[in-house]
Write a structure and sequence with these properties.
8 strands, alpha/beta, 8-stranded parallel barrel, TIM Barrel
Length: 249
């Protein structure tokens, strides 16, 4: 199990490229970020290679999968994201699925997501890249977003039927929406390709709030999961202090 630093969250408002150096100085080797299309990919490649960092994940375009009329646009952007991932040696792409559509049944939107991901699966399999779809909370941060249930996300992954399409289980978001974290993780670890973590409430360091991360991370380790835990929080304390506390987890 490896920690990955979400650069735009932990270093919000700071220079992206300078922050890469800080991550390495603080003793971590894996980074992730949100959007690639507003960044200099060649510079990122140069910086991570020079520093010995690994790009664990980044997002593909925020294009709706709930709307079948936007499917072609989603697929074309994913193709571009895959090329960027190959350039950076990145094996995970993060995808949101879009907002809930007014006047359209949830069943139809669910089926649209499944059908769209089935189109994407062969190209992901060919390139050895895993797309992780992310359920988000709709109470605090993402009102109107379609996919708030981890269980629906697991159902979608089952229907797509590809080892290269999995769920990004964000512990912060799912604590807000569902709770029952450890049981859900244990029962569905085969469908989880990536984790995100933040304290709740507040979305700060893991040692703030109601989530017992010592027990949650212990349970994840016990499943045999050896992938990434993405640190996607907004620091309340000095970044160094927050990252040093990870040694206790």
């Amino acid at each position: 199990m490896k920690f990955s630093v979400c650069v735009e969250a932990l270093f919000s408002g700071k220079d992206f490229y300078e922050s890469l150096k800080t991550v390495k100085d603080l003793g971590l080797d894996n980074i992730e970020f949100w959007s690639w299309w507003n960044k200099d990919i060649k510079r990122i490649k140069h910086e991570v290679d020079s520093l010995g960092l690994n790009v664990a994940a980044f997002c593909t375009g925020f294009i709706s999968l709930t709307d079948p009329q936007k499917r072609d646009e989603y697929v074309e952007f994913l193709k571009k994201s895959i090329e960027v991932a190959k350039e950076l040696g990145c094996k995970f792409l993060i995808s949101q699925v879009g907002d809930e559509l007014e006047g359209v049944s949830r069943e139809d939107q669910h089926n649209s997501i499944v059908d769209g991901l089935k189109v994407c699966a062969p190209m992901l399999e060919e390139e050895g890249i895993t797309l992780v779809i992310e359920p988000l909370n709709t109470h605090v941060n993402h009102k109107g977003y379609y996919l708030y249930s981890s269980h629906e996300a697991f159902e979608i992954v089952d229907k797509v039927g590809s080892g290269n399409v999995k769920v990004l289980y964000d512990i912060y978001h799912q604590q807000i929406m569902e709770g029952n974290l450890i049981s859900t993780i244990r029962n569905n670890i085969d469908k989880i390709g990536y984790f995100h973590a933040a304290g709740n409430p507040g979305r700060n360091e893991l040692y703030y709030g109601e989530i017992n991360y010592m027990e949650v991370l212990k349970a994840i380790r016990e499943t045999g999961y050896n992938g990434y835990i993405g640190l996607e929080y907004f620091p309340k304390d000095d970044v160094k202090k927050g990252l040093e506390m990870l040694k206790n987890l």
